[in-house]
Amino acid sequence: MKNEEFRKYGHEFIDWVADYLENLGSRRVVPDVKPGAVRSALPASPPLKPEPMEALFNDFKDIILPGITHWQHPGWYAYFPANSSPASLLGEILTAALGAQCMSWQTSPAATELEDLVMDWLRQMLGLPSGMSGVIQDTASTATLCALLSARERATDFESNESGLRRPLTVYISSETHSSIEKGVKIAGYGRASLRRIESDAAYAMIPEKLEAAILEDKARGFQPACVVATLGTTSSTAIDPLRPIGEIAARHGAWLHVDAAYAGTAAVCPENRAMLDGAEFMDSFVFNPHKWMLTNFDCSAYFVKDAGALIRTFEIHPEYLKTKADPYVKNYRDWGIQLGRRFRALKLWFVIRSHGVEGLQAFVREHLRLARMVKGYVEADKRFELMAPVPFGLVCFRLNDGRGEDALNDLNKRFLERINASGKLFMTHTALRGKYTLRMVIGARTTTEAHVRAAWEIIRSVAGLVLKL
Ligand code: PLP
Questions:
Q1: In the predicted model, is pLDDT for residue 391 greater than 50?
Q2: Which of 112, 117, 279, 460 has the highest local Cβ count within 10 Å?
Q3: Claim: this prediction has a pTM higher than 0.85
Q4: Ligand 1: which residue has its CA nearest to atom 14?
């Protein structure tokens, strides 16, 4: 492509993106497409000859776009948000333009140094302990895998130093922990039998006494506790595992403490939300996703460790072809995780933090929390609804409850959610809380305002009236 053509389409694409973002609210959030419809509208074989950009762009608009789920839509209340923002997008364009592969300091000094700086900014912004160092990973799943691998390294080092014998390792999670931890346990080779699910309390938070009892029982049976994973903001209901007592237990038994705050970590930009971090000094590692609630487009996951040496010992490798003169003086982030090649993700994060400022990000979070409390009030004020969990962040868990049996309630609420989503105006997802089918409404999309939430609640209320009559 000639530079002139690139410039022309570049301008056209930016105009299109600006219009898309401006008018997003008028689209259906979730497309109305049948499985296979997009694929079958496209040629089965690749083109032999170059195709003009205009044809590509038209196919994007006519075939791809109608099959897209619009995560940036103001009616997005599903899963957790995956917010983008104009500043992040602009940073991402520059990253793509540079096309730098940032595996080591030498392969782009500015990328390494900006990542180092931006991660320390984030550490300060969340009030994390001053000794922690950060690295950007693609996702929380990868960061958690890094934690599990580091924990395994530490546990097995310790074992062989002490007696040369290896005891089977154990990993502790709660009944509410995200599935990525179980996946990480499988990948890291602990074996599924090493996983212990600790009971949670009425608010879905891990019960520390049960954790300690399980560890003591395992130790008595010859197991070695390698890792405890606490969650701040669980996926189903944003429950907060009590960090201090869990941290004390992990420390007492020599287990690595990993903290998964993938969604809720962003809330800690506001000092009033930092009670959940009481006990942070016990954390060996901590992850949160700026690509969820902090306006940084997917992917960007912030991983912090107390002992960078333990992380590096787990991952470093020094083949001749990667050695550089600068190695003794610099960070080479390829040694801070699984992948060798790395994207320049720090740039978009830097754009986001600078263009909003810490105060802008705080205001953004506070508004979502205010709107979530407003919805909680709506749920509590309407006798047809039942609030299913506390609302510490932007997620409101609720269901319809007219007193019919649990199985019938599950069916009713499933139909309720399907009807709401069929409106195309909003999109929510569900979970099961102690076996009860529960609707999750997460207020967290960048574009969602009070007016959107009020309009969404009107739809929810009227659909409730409909399904209760059926
Ligand atoms: N941990 C929690 C608590 C989550 O809610 C999620 C995803 O929603 C994850 C981990 C996985 O995040 P990622 O998609 O970045 O791997």
A1: yes
A2: 460
A3: yes
A4: 139
